[in-house]
């Protein structure tokens, strides 16, 4: 397993080879740190992220957060069949990609722990050339 310092790096060479076993179990001190890690990873890997699932406890505090590749899932069928819309429909961009990061709040340590990390994409990522 990789040392956590490698996970915290912004060095593209260190982030590119991450696997599920490298990331699951990683702890973050805040939800913002977890989000920052995934957005940084996505930038290095050349894909866009969107916020997905969020769950709250009985007191209204966040207990689970999930971020996904912007091509995750599919557009709901109701929006595909809609014909009475005033505006032009948005382009279909979702392709069923499964790439994601999910963190849960660990109650005893008050840390955010990675419970799910899927690094495989079902589509080609953006090219790696600089403009």
List the helices and strands and how they pair.
Blueprint: H1 4-7, H2 12-16, H3 20-23, E1 27-28, H4 31-45, E2 49-56, E3 62-69, H5 77-80, E4 100-106, E5 111-118
Q: What is this structure, in a nutshell?
A:
It is built from five helices and five strands; from the N terminus they run αααβαββαββ. It is α+β, with helices and mostly antiparallel strands.
Structural class computed from helices and strand pairing: alpha+beta
Number of strands: 5
Rg, Å, rounded: 17 Å
Runs in which pLDDT lies below 50 for 5 or more consecutive residues are: none
Order of helices and strands: HHHEHEEHEE
Mean pLDDT: 81
Protein name: FAR1 domain-containing protein
InterPro entries: FAR1_DNA_bnd_dom (IPR004330)
Domain FAR1: 36-126
What does this structure look like?
This protein is of the alpha+beta class. The chain has one domain (4-118). 24% of the residues lie in helices and 25% in strands. It has a 5-stranded antiparallel sheet with strand order 1-5-4-3-2. It is flat, with a radius of gyration of 17 Å. Residues 36-126 form the FAR1 domain.
Question: What tags apply to this protein structure?
Answer:
alpha+beta, single chain, 131 residues, five-stranded antiparallel sheet
